[in-house]
# Entry
Amino acid sequence: MPTFSALKGEYARLWSTMQIVPTRAAAADAMAKQIIAGKPRYLAVTAATGVPYHVIGLIHAMEASLSFSTHLHNGDPLTARTKQVPNGRPRTGSPPFPWEASAADALRYDGLDTVKEWRAERIAFVLEGYNGWGYRNFHPTVLSPYLWSFSSHYSKGKYGADGDWGAGLVSQQCGAMVLLSRLIALDPSIQLAPSGEVAPDMDVEDLQLALNVFGYGLEPDGRYGPKTDAALSNFESRLAAFKARRAA
# Structure
C-alpha cells in the first residue's frame, strides 16, 4: 500500500497546478453547492468523528451521489446492511439506519477519525485510498479520475466496474479535488492546514522546457499531466542520487 510520505509531493504538485476544464466548471459548482446545502448534516458527523465537513461531503458526493438514503461506505441503501465492499456495515444497530450513524461508521471503518491534519495532500491521499489504489497500481499513466476528473490532470481511462478497465472510457463524475477547490471558493469557513510542500515558482510550460534540457522529451503544452509528473519525479530522484554521491 502506498504511504503518504511517498505521495505527498506528487499530490502537492497536482493540487497547485490543477485547472478545471472550462466546460465542466458549472457542473462542479452545482455539486459543490449541494454539498454546502448539506453542511448541517455533515457537521453532525464531524462532531462524532472529527472529520471535517467538507471531507465528508466529498466522500458523500463520490460514493453516494449526495443521497441521504444510502450508506456513505459505498452507496448501498440504508434499508439494509451494506452488500458491496465493505460488506455487512454497520455491524451494530438495525436497519433502516440513520444516515449520520452509518456515515460515522464508514469514517471510523477507514480510520479517518484518527487523521490529525487535513491539508490538501492528505485529503487527496485519504480519498484515493478510500476509492482504492487500482489506478496507481495497474494503470499508473492515468491519474485517478476519482480525484482529478474535470481537471487538466485527466482526459480518459477508467474502470467501468470493479476490475473492468476501459482505456477509452471517460469519467462523467466530477473529481473530488476539483470539488474541493470549488468548496473552498464558495465557503470561506473551509480552512485547510498549510501545505507541507510547495510547487516550483514557475509555470508548467517553463517546467516542461526545463526538464527537456535533461532529455525528457515533453510536449511543452502547459498541462501538468502524468508524463510531466513522472519526468519531474525521475529528475528529483536523479538529483537526490547526485547529491548523495557528492556527499560521499
The beta strands are 158-161, 164-166.
